[in-house]
Amino acid sequence: MQAKRPAPKDNDHPTLPAQRVGILLANLGTPDNYDYWSMRRYLSEFLSDQRVIDYSPWLWQPLLQAIILTKRPFTSGAAYKSIWNHAEGESPLMTITKAQTAKIQTAMKARYGDDVMVDFCMRYGNPSTKSKVAAMTAAGCTKILFFPLYPQYAGATSATACDAFFAALSREKWQPIARVVEPYFERPDYIEALAASIEMAYSKIETRPDILICSYHGLPVRYLMEGDPYHCQCQKTTRLLKERLGWKDTEIMTTFQSKFGPEEWLQPYTVEEVARQAEAGNKNIAICAPAFSADCIETLEEINEEIKESFEEAGGEQFTYVPCLNDDDLHIKALTATIEENLKGWCD
Fold it and tell me: If 0-12 CB within 10 Å is exposed, 13-18 middle and 19+ buried, where does residue 299 land?
């Protein structure tokens, strides 16, 4: 149980809420809408992050603001429009993150009662990390567990989420004590949830796919050579998944998607590999995206439309996309167990 702040004795002190522990889930982000200006604001914030694009701002910003952001909001907006949750007026990533948060809130309420507060933020766009940290502090959270929802660590995802979190903490008069959840790519319960989703998808396919492609978001090779562990953690995720499924090496492989810019990125590139598979005679493939905790533009549009099209144009016949874990019960169970382990000493 959390200790409670004593009630102030004098009128010259503010009224303080009871102490609580905050659990702040974090994901990449989403534009507020798919119109030009919403997309431009979102892309400008995202592509201006030097964790994502680490070129000199003196060179990069003129190119970004004067050239890239005059055209890219139109193409990206069209992509978002094709997957948009029009009923709720939001992106699928927002819808899914809300569902994940609601289920985790229910689990935490059952375990800890009112001593914990669960919410989510986005690194880019809304709700911002800054706004959610401020809200948690105002609600009495003197301790915050920050949980970047990226199974594998990358400087362009996990690290920049933490940058925003600690920057938000720096603005608080009474700064909460903080913990950050480490990457969970090798947790047995996460691998179990991933494997179960593959087995469920395969049980619904009449003819077993020739190969499962595990497609991870890519990074420049240079980042790997500079010490980013992402590539190795992705490879280990695939290996652990293969071992849990009991498959042969020829039944599963790792690829990387979403290449951006002129540099060499981690390979093989998913969009090229699916075409090679089709040309080599593997006309029936399945693809999953273990680096994403929730379906988003990179899975629903890039994989399910662009990458699928590359496969079919090369002669592929059966393309099965296995959805991200989203708010699946096994996924929520794994996330909840991770949270509970990280709360030890705070709530137990």
Answer: buried
